[in-house]
Write a structure and sequence with these properties.
The structure is a single chain. With 134 residues, the chain is of the alpha+beta class. The protein has one domain. Strands 1-3-2-4 form a four-stranded antiparallel β-sheet. Helix 1 packs antiparallel against helix 3. The longest helix has 11 residues. It starts with 24 loop residues before the first strand and ends in a 13-residue tail after the last helix.
Amino acid sequence: MQLNVLKPPKRESLCPKCAGLCCRYVALPIETPKTRGDFDDIRWYLAHEGFSIFVDEGDWYVNIAARCKYLTDDNMCGIYLNRPRICRTYKDDNCDYHGGDYGYDLYFSSTEELEEYMAKKFPKRKAKRKSKAV
């Protein structure tokens, strides 16, 4: 008896339609900042061109705008058959091609944006006045 195995139809890749958006940045997880000092360290990232910070589902990331050196002029992978595992396992069902708002919990692209957030998170304490004894 022969069993017919139904295979899902092969889906066309979105890569040929895209501008290689996923190949133009690197996002790395960072520790969740808790103190003023932690946030001040994050300011250092934002003081550099091409860096941003985002929070997605509670996890913090540093995002570095950096084009992959193997991205070809037609926005395809120049080493496709030998691409890194991260690239091989990337799925285009939730990729950058779909565009729109990423729905980040938080997003900072400048030190000023982070400082504004810090001012709300760490309000300045009012200084206690010392009374003069007369």
